[in-house]
Design brief:
mainly alpha, Rossmann fold, Glutamyl-tRNA Synthetase, domain 3, 3-stranded antiparallel beta sheet, 44% helix, RNA-binding
RNA sequence: GCUCCCAUCGUCUAGAGGCCUAGGACACAGCCCUCUCAAGGCUGGUACGAGGGUUCGAAUCCCUCUGGGAGCGCCA
């Protein structure tokens, strides 16, 4: 039987979830849970000095908002937890011991200063900055001597001097790296905390993760994790490295640079399904050019349709999917989306009517502010162009419109016929000045739908005003 | 500095030696439809980073260069 696919997303709580990470999370989710496997969430908070719990909360909320749900995570243990690395110390302790006992790891007493000096010297000599191996061959007497100085050792992995590490990357294909280029890396810090290479690899294995999708920046680190897991004789997941996401200027999206975060998009009113449709196509093909429902994402996702080159974030494309998403909102959903922007005193029915009327003309909830005055207040000043349209129509036109409105009311069809008869105007020459006088702008929903939504007193006042001013 | 990864329209990309005078989507421009906007339909411009090979034939394979990115941390 084919073993079940288990994927994971392992954010570190050092900032808000940005688009690049969201994409990695989405793809992992699609490959796992959405395809009948499992998807788990692990918080990589092994560095106590950085980040904070507020970021765990916000990242979880962002993930949930995007529609990604997880089978296990910090809020949902399935027996393989805990799912926060800061709580997994005891698990790591046994592994350190085993590694050291079997000779795969050794204590390193070098100080940060010593390491820094060595690194600079190597760089100056055009050598790659690697751990020089100072503590590699220390005997027990030498170790005791250093310990007696009060030095707290870190634990380093002993990388083989020779050999080649080979693996098949899920998106890049066969990879191979010479062990000699690696250098012994730290497993456990002097303060006892685990290092990324160690806890990340070990946890994936312990949590039965079968496929790891992560950023390109981990590609060169993968051999280390492979070596480590092999030394531990633990199951090794398959790794796939996604190209990084760049911003419009070509710089990598990152937390530090404050690049587009999921939270920001949500606050601006982007719909999760829009972000999903965009992300699904960013560096990935196979989805049709048309809108795809989130429930169909997994069906349209495939590892071998992943691109290898870094992709740029393009707001115009996101907005395209946003427009598609807004169009597909039911009136109830649209009201919910718009809620905070609508007048508090409006009834549910009024909200529904407003949403139904303007949904096609809004890209963000904030755009509501452009339309509220049309339905219930003073119109902003006209543009010169719009104003000249009113002038061209002339006072008589608006007087006729006023009379016609008295007679037929808000029925635009009847109003149009009446006006045509009275003024001889038709088509755009008839409706355009009417629209501008009534709404203060030249675009928007059909007048037939718009006119009944404007209170009669306002309609009369605007037509009167147009007749006077022009 | 060393190692690794990447390279097709402005952007996302199709393309796995002849189907490519390079296709689609977004964006842009024009036209049609329409009271307008949006949607829809049609049309248009814009790309294989450079140079060498291999081959009857290369966007596709190889090499060099260029450009971009990553890694080399007691960060993740």
């Amino acid at each position: 039987m084919e073993p079940i696919t288990v994927t994971r997303f392992a954010p570190s709580p050092t900032g808000a979830l940005h688009l690049g990470n969201a994409r990695t999370a989405l793809f992992s989710f699609l490959l796992g849970r959405a395809s009948g496997g499992r998807f788990i969430l692990r918080i990589e908070d092994s560095d106590r000095g950085r980040g904070g719990p507020e970021f765990i909360v916000s990242q979880l909320a962002d993930l949930a908002w995007l529609g990604l749900s997880w089978d296990a995570g910090p809020d949902r243990d399935d027996g393989r937890g805990p799912y926060r690395q800061s709580e997994r110390g005891p698990i790591y302790d046994g592994l350190y011991e085993k590694l050291e006992f079997e000779g795969y790891a050794y204590p390193c007493y070098c100080t940060p200063l010593e390491l820094d000096v060595a690194r600079r010297a190597q760089l100056a000599a055009s050598q790659p900055p690697r751990y020089p191996g100072t503590c590699r061959g220390l005997d027990s007497a030498a170790r005791a001597a250093r310990a007696a100085e009060g030095r707290q050792p870190a634990l380093r992995f002993r990388v083989p001097d020779a050999g080649v590490i080979e693996f098949e990357d899920l998106v890049r294909g066969p990879q191979s790296v010479a062990a000699a280029t690696l250098g012994d890396f730290v497993l456990r810090r002097a303060d006892g905390g685990p290092m990324f290479f160690f806890c990340n690899a070990v946890d994936d294995s312990l949590m039965d993760v079968t496929q790891v999708l992560r950023g390109d920046d981990h590609l060169s680190n993968t051999p280390r994790q492979l070596l480590l897991l092999q030394a531990l004789k633990m199951p090794v997941p398959r790794y796939g490295h996604l190209p990084l996401l760049l911003d419009a200027s070509g710089a990598p999206l990152s937390k530090r640079r404050g690049s587009t975060t999921v939270g920001e998009l949500r606050e601006r009113g982007y719909l999760a399904a829009a972000v999903g449709n965009y992300l699904l196509r960013l560096g990935h093909t196979g989805a049709p050019d048309q809108w795809v429902e989130p429930a169909e994402f997994a069906r349209n996702f495939s590892l071998d349709r992943l691109g290898r080159a870094p992709a740029h974030f393009d707001a115009a494309q996101l907005d395209h999917w946003q427009r598609e998403a807004v169009r597909r909102l039911t009136p109830e959903q649209a009201v919910h989306w718009l809620d905070a922007e609508l007048p508090a005193d409006w009834s549910g029915q009024q909200r529904l009517e407003f949403a139904g009327l303007l949904q096609g003309n809004l890209l963000f909830p904030a755009d509501t502010a452009d339309w509220l005055p049309v339905l219930r207040g003073d119109l902003p000043p006209l543009t010169a162009e719009d104003s000249s349209v009113l002038a061209e129509a002339g006072p008589a036109f608006f007087e006729a419109a006023l009379t016609a409105y008295h007679e037929v009311g808000a029925d635009v069809g009847a109003l149009g016929r009446e006006l045509k008869q009275r003024t001889g105007r038709k088509g755009a020459a008839l409706f355009m000045p009417l629209r501008i006088a009534l709404t203060g702008r030249h675009d928007g929903p059909e007048l037939a739908a718009l006119l009944p939504a404007i209170p009669a007193a306002l309609v009369r006042a605007r037509l009167t005003g147009a007749a006077r001013a022009h």
